[in-house]
Amino acid sequence: MAKKPVNKSQTVRDYLKTHPSTANKEVAEALKKQGIKISANHVANIKSKMAVSKGKRKRRGKAAKAMSAKSGVSVHEIKAAFGLLKECGGVERAKEALDAAREIQKVL
Q1: pTM listed for this prediction
Q2: Residues 23-39: tens digit of each pLDDT
Q3: In the 8-state DSSP scheme, what is residue 108?
Q4: CB neighbours (10 Å) of residue 23?
Q5: Is 60 exceeded by the pLDDT of residue 65?
Q6: CA distances from 57 to 4, 51, 62, 64, 93 (A)
Q7: pLDDT value for 32
Q8: What is the DSSP secondary-structure string of 28-94?
Q9: Rounded Cα–Cα distance for residues 16 and 45 (Å)
Q10: Residues 6 or more apart from 72 whose CB is under 8 A from it?
């Protein structure tokens, strides 16, 4: 019977949640004892990707708070605007969607 495939990246992320300050080599050795073959370099790559995504969220949050203080628009509203931009695919399409919503609002 074939072994069930293991998601090594998720296994490393889970291990790092419980052991956050562990060195790459130690993580690789611990997972090797569990039967998962992974190198310290692979662990380092996974850790670096985790740090990048976490940093991006922090920067966006700080920028939203700064803009909120400057413009008087709440952080929640700014995040909703980001969602609209992402959904529409850009500023121009979002403006078109808002114009259409204004027209519908006039009718109602």
Answers
A1: 0.47
A2: 999 999 999 999 999 99
A3: -
A4: 12
A5: yes
A6: 34, 10, 9, 10, 24
A7: 92
A8: HHHHHHTT----HHHHHHHHHHHHHHHHHHHHHHHHHHHHHHHH---HHHHHHHHHHHHHHTSHHHH
A9: 13
A10: none
Q: How far apart are CA 50 and CA 44, in angstroms?
A: 10
Nearest to 23 by CA among 6, 44, 42: 44
- Domain spans in the chain, listed from the N-terminal domain onward: 1-57, 73-108
Q: Residue 13: which residues within 8 A CB-CB, separation 6 or more?
A: 46, 50
Write the CA distances from 14 to 3, 32, 58, 99, integer angstroms: 21, 15, 21, 45
Q: Cα(58)–Cα(85) distance, rounded to whole angstroms?
A: 19
How far from 96 is each of 15, 77, 85, 100, 102, CA to CA, in Å? 46, 19, 11, 6, 10
Other residues' Cβ atoms within 10 Å of the Cβ of residue 56: 10
